[in-house]
Write a structure and sequence with these properties.
The protein is α/β, with parallel strands linked by helices. It contains 8 helices and 6 strands, in the order βααβαβαααβααββ. It has a 6-stranded mixed beta sheet.
Length: about 230
């Protein structure tokens, strides 16, 4: 019975500061680092042994993955990094304080940008300081693939090929898989895994801690779902 463990990155410095983060490459806070360590300890206590791990190309997820593997005594497990597991791109909201954005654009509009399934936030200009265009980690991609803004629908469309090409085949082979990623990229994959409607996924929240576990049968149907330590 293969297991898939999702760990949203620990609290980041921008989570702490209440800023829209998206593809901005910010670090873990002190609390976030401890959350990642504690995630590893919970994995070890649960006796879950991984065959492969996947993460994004953003350091808050990479560090969470490394710490979780280290503190579960599995730092040797192969780790694959992919931009397809990046957080949702918040476009022109990136770097803004969420309260300031609400004061500027109105609570209702910001709520729609944050929580609707298919409404895009304002696009980020290519010359913005947080733009991914020109970032070396995305140099292998066609420029048209690099987003300027994303909603959850687009995030799923971006993450789905990685699920189909990498994660799902590993699970079908009976491997236990760790995914250290982000709130919205994990939500997108949870929508796919649980066959949730567009409305149902909007009520799903992924906490920074603890890790979320799925167990599957041979046909990748969910047989169990739970948070470690709960």
């Amino acid at each position: 019975m293969p297991k898939l463990v999702f760990a949203r990155h620990g609290q980041s410095e921008w989570n702490l500061a209440n800023l829209f983060t998206g593809w901005a490459d910010v670090d873990l806070s002190e609390e976030g680092t401890q959350q990642a360590i504690d995630a590893g300890k919970l994995i070890k206590e649960a006796g879950i042994e991984f065959d492969i791990a996947y993460t994004s190309v953003l350091k808050r997820a990479i560090k969470t993955t490394n710490l979780a593997l280290e503190y579960s005594d599995q730092l040797w497990v192969p780790v694959v990094k992919s931009w397809r597991l990046n957080e949702r791109h918040y476009g022109g909201l990136t770097g803004l304080n969420k309260a300031d954005a609400a004061a500027k654009h109105g609570d209702e509009q910001v709520h729609i940008w944050r929580r609707s399934y298919d409404v895009l936030p304002p696009a980020m200009p290519h010359d913005d300081q947080y733009s991914a265009h020109g970032d070396r980690r995305y140099a292998h991609l066609e420029d048209s693939l690099i987003p300027d803004a994303e909603n959850l629908k687009v995030t799923l469309e971006r993450a789905l090929p990685f699920w189909e090409d990498q994660i799902a085949p590993a699970l079908k082979d009976g491997k236990n898989v760790f995914v250290g990623a982000h709130g919205n990229s994990i939500r997108a994959l949870v929508k796919q895994i649980k066959h949730l409607s567009d409305d149902e996924i909007m009520d799903v929240e992924i906490p920074n801690f603890p890790p979320l576990v799925f167990e599957f049968d041979d046909n990748l149907q969910v047989t169990n779902e739970y948070y470690l330590g709960k």
